[in-house]
Amino acid sequence: MSKDQTQDLLRFLQPFGEEIKELVLWLREFVWDLYPKANELIYDNYNALAFGWSPTDKLGHTFCSIAVGRTSKKVHFGFYWGSEIADPDKLLLGKGNQYRYILVKKKDDFPSPYIKKLLKEAYANSLAKVKDKKEIIEGTTITKSVSPVKRVLKGIGKKKKK
Fold first, then answer.
1. Crossing angle for the helix pair 112-129 and 18-34, to the nearest 10 degrees
2. Of 15, 42, 95, 118, which is least surrounded by CB within 10 A?
3. 86 φ/ψ angles, rounded to the nearest 5 degrees
4. What is the pTM of this model?
């Protein structure tokens, strides 16, 4: 099962420190426990580490994601199509055409019951976007992109020259 496929993600989390790593892995487990047949898509980009869940291997079908900013170190729990789901308590941030999120600072502050409701709607919305049901795959982790090295990961790559 993909929940156990952590090698890439753990490597990408190294620069963020233990506290952020622990929070992010806890959020990851929260989603995997609810959607074990979804697929985890990992994007290690120059400005953020982001990973989300999709019924396919396509970013456009992603229903939720976790992102950590490289410089801000802020943790987002987001909804790729968040503008299309109900948010009756108005907890989601963002005013763009698509993405909505909450900032997560501590496990104790994470509104789990509310987020579960949003996840249910976001997942249904995501499935509705899959036109060809043959694209649906189950329970895998896919590292979709790794940006050119902008940081040093314990002996991997070179530091960017200024």
1. 60
2. 95
3. -70, 140
4. 0.85
